[in-house]
């Protein structure tokens, strides 16, 4: 009894880490394709039992329908988020969906702080200036984090790791969560109060119908002038047009984005030789106080090792019909 898995959208680091841990999972056979999964590539799954996909996959209704026709029984998400998967349809068709819920909250939280610091202290610009023998300090003014207030929106695993980091910087930490965690050392407040009091706002809640565009014209207005906003969660949390309007109005000291609304077709691709067909990213990058990275919060050695192990363990749990909390569809194995 073994499971044959096709890894879609595989990058060199995926192959490196998954091949390394595969020796501990003799019941699994894995193959890689750099093609991402969408309607045109779903047919590649023919002959496999399971597929493995990432945050940028299209696992909407049509793709799930196609996977069922190719007798796929299991979708392994090698990530925490699953807003791109039609779980309902997968469940109806008896396809189990499993994920990796908390591989390394610190990896993402540390990137959130790196973005906050880069956006604040302009280290990305300072580096380029020094390389060009420009040792002047113009355009590099920042603000202290010490003694300021950090507002954490979504106080789950990553939000709490970010709260710890902020405390280490000597910041006061406040937060908002729909489901408050009494064990989190966070002073909870309603969302509008957190927005009003925070000097640094970091987003860490999942993208759902409820959180979609939670940062919009109205919520931006209730923020402090000169706030620093960081999003390492999902692009859809922020209504980008309203963010751009807010940046133009001078609301933000700095903005750091690891995720953005239109990342779908771009993320993880080298498009440096191409003419981009949308302008939102170009507009964001035209602002001197915006720093963007390409959904790399997860990208540490520790996180990748943990993702690889948990993903393959999920496959074995499925194969051996073991209950797993990482299963999202509650299909009968
Ligand atoms: P988690 O499930 O531990 O925490 C999420 C928190 O959000 C929970 O405390 C939950 O109660 C809260 N929440 C849910 N609905 C809410 C609402 N309507 N309003 C306010 N809070 C709400 O998840 P974790 O591991 O902390 O991850 C958070 C998010 O980070 C993921 O959903 C994912 O989108 C993103 N992520 C980004 C990565 C990157 O590479 N940039 C990597 C991994 C995750």
> Tell me about the biggest sheet?
7 strands, parallel
Find the CATH topology of the largest domain: Rossmann fold
Helix vs. strand class: alpha/beta
N-to-C CA distance: 14 Å
Give the number of helices. 11
Low-confidence stretches: none
Task: Explain how this protein is built.
This protein folds into 2 domains: 3-103 and 300-329, 3-Layer(aba) Sandwich (Rossmann fold), CATH 3.40.50.720; 105-292, NAD(P)-binding Rossmann-like Domain (Rossmann fold). It is 33% helix and 15% strand. The protein is built from 11 helices and 12 strands. The protein has helices spanning 12-22, 61-69, 87-92, 105-121, 123-131, 157-168, 191-197, 217-221, 240-248, 280-285, 301-319; strands at residues 3-7, 28-32, 50-53, 74-77, 96-98, 149-153, 172-176, 187-188, 200-203, 227-231, 252-257, 290-292. Strands 8-7-6-9-10-11-12 form a 7-stranded parallel sheet, sandwiched between helices. A 5-stranded parallel sheet has the order 2-1-3-4-5. The model has no long low-confidence stretch (mean pLDDT 95). Bound molecules: 1,4-dihydronicotinamide adenine dinucleotide (NAI). 1,4-dihydronicotinamide adenine dinucleotide binds next to helix 4 and helix 6.
């Amino acid at each position: 009894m073994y499971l044959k898995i096709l890894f879609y959208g595989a990058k060199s680091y995926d192959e490196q880490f998954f091949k390394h841990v595969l020796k501990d999972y003799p019941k699994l056979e894995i193959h890689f394709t750099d093609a991402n999964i969408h309607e045109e590539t779903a047919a590649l799954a023919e002959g496999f039992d399971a597929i493995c996909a990432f945050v940028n996959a299209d696992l909407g209704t049509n793709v799930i329908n196609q996977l069922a026709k190719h007798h796929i029984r299991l979708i392994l998400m090698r990530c925490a988020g699953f807003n791109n998967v039609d779980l309902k349809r997968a469940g109806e068709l008896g396809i189990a969906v499993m994920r990796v819920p908390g591989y390394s909250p610190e990896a993402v939280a540390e990137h959130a702080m790196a973005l906050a610091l880069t956006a604040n202290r302009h280290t990305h610009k300072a580096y380029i200036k020094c390389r060009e023998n420009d040792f002047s300090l113009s355009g590099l003014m920042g603000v202290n984090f010490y003694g300021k207030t950090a507002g954490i929106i979504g106080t789950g695993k990553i939000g709490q790791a970010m709260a710890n980091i902020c405390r280490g910087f000597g910041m006061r930490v406040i937060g908002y969560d729909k489901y408050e965690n009494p064990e989190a050392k966070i002073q909870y407040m309603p969302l509008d109060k957190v927005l009003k009091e925070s000097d640094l706002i970091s987003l860490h809640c999942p993208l759902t119908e409820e959180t979609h565009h939670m940062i919009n014209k109205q919520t931006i207005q209730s923020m402090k002038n000169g706030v620093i906003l960081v999003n390492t969660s999902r692009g859809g949390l922020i209504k980008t047009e309203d963010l751009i309007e807010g940046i133009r109005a001078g609301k933000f000291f700095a903005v750091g984005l690891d995720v953005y609304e239109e990342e779908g077709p771009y993320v993880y691709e080298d498009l440096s030789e191409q003419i981009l067909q949308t302008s939102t990213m170009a507009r964001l990058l035209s602002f001197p106080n915006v720093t963007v990275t390409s959904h790399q919060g997860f990208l540490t050695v520790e996180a990748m090792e943990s993702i690889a192990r948990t993903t393959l363990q999920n496959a074995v749990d499925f194969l051996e019909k073991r209950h797993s909390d990482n299963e999202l569809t509650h299909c009968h194995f």
